[in-house]
Design brief:
Layout: H1 2-6, E1 11-17, E2 25-31, E3 35-39, E4 45-50, E5 54-56, E6 64-68, E7 75-78, H2 83-99, H3 103-137, H4 140-158, H5 165-177, E8 183-186, E9 193-195, E10 201-204, H6 206-209, H7 215-230, H8 233-240, H9 243-252, H10 257-269, H11 277-286, H12 292-298, H13 306-310, H14 325-332
Parallel strand pairs: 8-10
Antiparallel strand pairs: 1-2, 1-7, 2-3, 3-4, 5-6, 6-7, 9-10
Length: 337
């Protein structure tokens, strides 16, 4: 310790009392190796006090009175004339004090570390764990209910679902042909297609009114099916809505209208989403459907969809119509009243 070396040769006279009933005697005080050495006038050591255990009975007052920590009956009185020794002892006591463990500080560090760990778990682990648990326990009927409620929010800006009776029957046939489940057509959607929890696939009426065959609409349906297979739409919703809404769903089985409205706005702002190429091509092959009409609907120039055109599994082959011409005409008129 640097401070010890600085005061190694320092000595001073003092009055030492070994106990409360013992008369004080004059002694020589010197600083040894981590100890305060008390010697008689013949330089014979009487006792050693550990510098780490020296306490002061009268801080700020002279003459200074020191005693071993925990034993105020043994005292060492140093007069103001030996101010250098007093200052040296006080300096060494401060050095020792700084080097001691601080239980309060350690407790604070421990508490802060624990709090940070809890916050980290809440931020990084809890949302994902809660989502996983919710996805496991939410039944299919509730998924359908959530999808229907979300559709109602979308209808507020995209118009009500087209319900021409003959067109609805023909649309169901198209859904059955592609194993797509329930299909819904909206009159003014900001994107061509999307999929919702509960298996609902929503299509813009332009997919039927602007093309001569059902192959384009069929391509969009297959794209949504592939995306739905690769990513649970309920998981996508839970990842966007608040953690509080996640708790609400798992505890009450409901999602607030505000959360549904916000998520509806979110998915409508995303624009058209493309499915992964390989599984989409495989799905076209499984349904005996050309991928080229869908690729050209995405990009009439074919520049950004060349992989879909060159990978068309039905290229050069004749395929059966997805639905009859009569049903196709009915679907084209599904929003026509």
């Amino acid at each position: 310790m640097t401070a010890l070396k600085k005061y190694a040769r320092l000595e001073a006279t003092a009055l030492w009392r070994a106990g409360p009933d013992v008369q004080r005697r004059e002694v020589i005080v010197s600083i040894g190796d981590a100890t305060l050495v008390i010697s008689d006038l013949k330089d014979q050591a009487l006792t050693h006090w550990s510098l780490a255990a020296v306490d002061r009975a009268n801080p700020g007052t002279r003459p200074a009175i020191f005693h071993p920590d925990g034993d105020p009956s043994e005292t060492l009185e140093i007069s103001d004339a030996e101010a250098e020794m007093i200052d040296a002892i006080e300096t060494l006591r401060r050095v020792v004090e700084r080097g001691r463990p601080k239980p309060g500080r350690l407790r604070l560090v421990g508490v802060m570390t624990s709090m940070l760990l809890v916050v980290a778990l809440a931020v990084f682990w809890l949302p994902g764990a809660l989502q996983d648990h919710t996805l496991r326990v939410v039944p299919v009927v509730k998924r359908v209910s959530i999808g229907a409620a979300l559709l109602r929010q979308i209808e507020r800006v995209s118009g009500l679902t087209c319900t021409n009776p003959r067109g609805t029957v023909a649309l169901a046939k198209l859904g059955t042909r592609l194993s797509a489940g329930p299909l819904v057509v909206l009159p003014a959607m900001t994107r061509a297609s999307l999929h919702l929890p509960g298996g609902i696939i929503v299509l813009n009426k332009t997919l039927f009114e602007d093309y001569e065959s059902p192959d384009v609409a069929g391509g969009y349906i297959l794209s949504e099916l592939v995306q739905r297979t690769n990513s649970d739409p309920l998981r996508e919703m839970l990842a966007v809505i608040s953690l509080r809404e996640n708790f609400r769903l798992i505890t009450t089985g409901e999602v607030s209208d505000e959360a549904l409205e916000s998520y509806a706005e979110h998915i409508m702002s995303l624009g058209n989403q493309r499915a992964a190429l390989a599984p989409l091509i495989a799905r076209f092959a499984a349904e005996n459907l050309h991928s080229t009409p869908y690729a050209q609907a995405l990009d009439i120039t074919g520049e950004t969809t060349l992989d879909l055109i060159e990978g068309d599994p039905m290229a050069g082959k004749d395929t059966a119509p997805l639905i009859s011409d009569a049903d196709w005409l009915r679907v084209q008129n599904i929003c026509g009243g």
